Amino acid sequence: MEFTRSQQLYEESVQYLPGGVNSPVRAFRAVDRHPLFIDHAKGAYLYDADGNQYIDYVCSWGPCILGHAHPCVVRAVQRACEGGLTFGAPTEQELTLAKLIRACMPSMEVSRLVSSGTEAVMSAVRLARGFTGRDKIIKFRGCYHGHSDGLLVKAGSGALTQSAPDSLGVPADYAKLTLVAEYNHPESVERLFAEHPGEIAALLVEPVAANMGVVPPESGFLSFLREITKDHGALLIFDEVITGFRLGPGGAQEYYGVTPDLTTLGKIIGGGMPVGAYGGKREIMELVAPSGAVYQAGTLSGNPLATAAGIETLTVLSQTPGIYAQLDQNAKRLAAAMRESFGERVRVNQAGSLVGMFFTGQNVMDYETAVSSDTAAYARYFHAMIKQGIYLAPSQYEAMFVSAAHGEAEITKTCEALRSAGERLGG
Ligand code: KE4
């Protein structure tokens, strides 16, 4: 495979963009090579600037659950373009998208569209503080909720990959309002509520942690969080930016049967366009301006192109019988192939169509076990796969996303590549 053009583009891009990229995890730093510049994508495939073809399991970090450039989604966006790109005024499409969201996630009785997952979570936290009159929040070490100041505390995803889970530039006075618990360790949550009685506005959690690799909730963990937040008058916020419409139409709250007070969404609800959302019970959401005194705004919130892509994506998902069963089935096949190909050197976690493989001999069920994995081995695995035309997340601390465009041919080829990589890496 030739990477000349990507290398050239990277070398020029570093002169204009920090690290040559517009988001850190794209920089391939954790796998010690320059990033690939993508020219276009279709279905399950990416095509880089040198014309190499890859089966894509990043799927733009989750949005492309239908695969790239799905014809229905592209046509919907093209049609929307003809009518004007943005008005800064309400449109029927925003109502349509809000109704689609509520139909699938009834806890989101009232929702607000924004332009990213970061904005959704930042706004939901502000709302929880406004609603409760309390300032402190709990998050989990290794979970990632976007880059708003208070949430770049022990953060996952690119922050963890770059060894900067506590970003520079976040005032200590602000960071101290973010209390950090351990995912899948109820006692760490109990301790924080006991140490800060009456001070905690909300507990924020990824219902499936997917930013320290994939770490599903242990049985009872989410219902424990539901009960303890109720007991202490704190709001439970499910950050479903990844799991929303990924684990099923009702996201993790339906998949695990636990209902939060507020939910944040992103990625899939935009179908590849910039969309986030936060929502919940009317009594809480009514506090959001202009109906209430918690201010939040956005020039391009709910713009016609983004809502067109989101509406079409959710419509295709809801109108394609068996689509989630197929996604999960393919993810299970990949997980099994990983275990067969790498044996006891790895542990594989899977939740719906999210898969995470860790190079470690111990089960990965929390932050400590996730970061104990061998990231150098992961980098070797990444290279062994990309050479075979399989494009994986360039970091151990991300998820593998399966899309509806990954058919029999792609899954079979990926399983063969896993077997070959397992042999080559001394499986
Ligand atoms: P965005 O602001 O990137 O749209 O969403 C932030 C966010 C919020 N909550 C969760 C659970 C998330 O996973 C994310 C963003 N996910 C990362 C990938 N793990 C985005 C990729 C990137 O940062 O480039």
Q: How would you describe the shape?
A: globular
Q: Which percent bin holds the helix content? A: 25-40%
Q: Profile the largest sheet.
A: 7 strands, mixed
Calculate the terminal CA-CA distance, rounded to whole Å. Answer: 24 Å
Present as ligands are: ligand KE4
Strand content: 5-15%
Number of strands: 14
* Alpha plus pi helix count: 15
The H-and-E topology, N to C, reads as HEEEHHEHEHHEHEHEHEEHHHEEHHEEH
Average predicted local confidence, pLDDT: 97
| Structural class by SSE content | alpha/beta
Uncertain ranges: none
Rg is: 21 Å
Biggest sheet: strand arrangement: 4-10-9-8-7-5-6
Topology of helices and strands:
Elements: H1 4-13, E1 38-42, E2 45-48, E3 53-56, H2 71-82, H3 92-104, E4 110-114, H4 117-132, E5 136-140, H5 157-161, H6 172-175, E6 178-181, H7 186-195, E7 200-205, H8 221-231, E8 235-239, H9 251-255, E9 262-265, E10 276-280, H10 282-285, H11 304-319, H12 323-342, E11 347-351, E12 354-358, H13 367-371, H14 375-386, E13 390-391, E14 400-401, H15 408-424
Parallel strand pairs: 3-13, 5-6, 5-7, 7-8, 8-9
Antiparallel strand pairs: 1-2, 2-3, 4-10, 9-10, 11-12, 12-14
Helix pairs in contact: 2-11, 3-11, 7-8, 12-15
Ligand KE4 is lined by residues 23, 25, 61, 116-118, 121, 144-146, 157-158, 206, 211, 239, 241-242, 266, 276, 398.
